[in-house]
Structure formats: C-alpha cells, structure tokens
Write the structure tokens for this entry.
Amino acid sequence: MYICVRKQLNQKGLQNYQIQKKTVPVVFSNINPNIPIGSLYFFTTASGTKYEVRFGRRKDNIFHATIVFGVVNDEYKGEEYVTTNKGELYSVMHTIGEVIKIFMFHHPKMLIYEFTAIGKEDEPDGLITIRRRLYERYLGVIFSNEWKYDFRENTVLICRKDGMSETLSKI
C-alpha cells in the first residue's frame, strides 16, 4: 500500500491536499511446470483462489500459442471464467502477465500469442467484452514494442513484428 497526496484548488482558490491510500498490485508466487519449457502454470491469490494459466500450441503452427487462464477452485464448479469479486483483479492480471513473460523467456521463437476474452452471461453477443478491454490494458505491460496486436472481435492476436504479415496471412 502507498499513500498518494493530491493538491487541489478549492472553490475559494485555496490549496487543499487530499490524501488517498492506494494498493499496489502484487504478483502472487506461481507454481512453475516441472520442466522449464512446460505449458501449465498455477498460482494462488491471497484469498485462496487458485488460478491456472495454460499455453496451448496450435496443431497447424507450433509457433502459435493460445493463452487460457481461469479459476480452478472446486467451489466455482469447474467454471473457469467465473467472476470472483475478491478485490484481487489487478494483482491477478499482473501475475498472469508475469507468467506470460516467463513462458516467453523459455520459448523465444514463438511468433504468435492469442487469447479470447469470453463474455459474461449478461453481455450481448457481437460487442467487445469488458474482459477484452481489461486485457488490452495489459498488452503493453507484457509485450515489448517488438510485437503488434491484431484485434478480431473478442480475440486478440499478438504477433512478432518481424514475421507478422507472413504469419497473419496463414491464420
């Protein structure tokens, strides 16, 4: 936690100081695969919610990985896209970002990463989901400027720039 002090002018033009307490997202410790080049990672949040992050290779292109992550606790009855509302959203996203960076370190030849933001039950079909907008916020944190993003409705393809046009034409 850190304290943020903001200086503001009140209605009379005098300076007021507003003090806010903010929480810095933490990265939860993760359980790496048994072998460094593995594709399944787990981590548990401070509230005890267990998540998995999986990287699935495409059969038609081994340099293309689909990223899938979600909750694996029994209390959520196997629904991995459940909304937990435990106040850990930003820490969960930061942790997923770190897991992706670890995977990228061990797989430096990957050309494409992909994920699909599954909509919540109350979201209408055909619109960009709230989850996709959240994931977009983390793309620049996770991927360097060597990568380019291709948005296709609620699917995002993250492609290495040096091979992008060639690989996108094959998808």
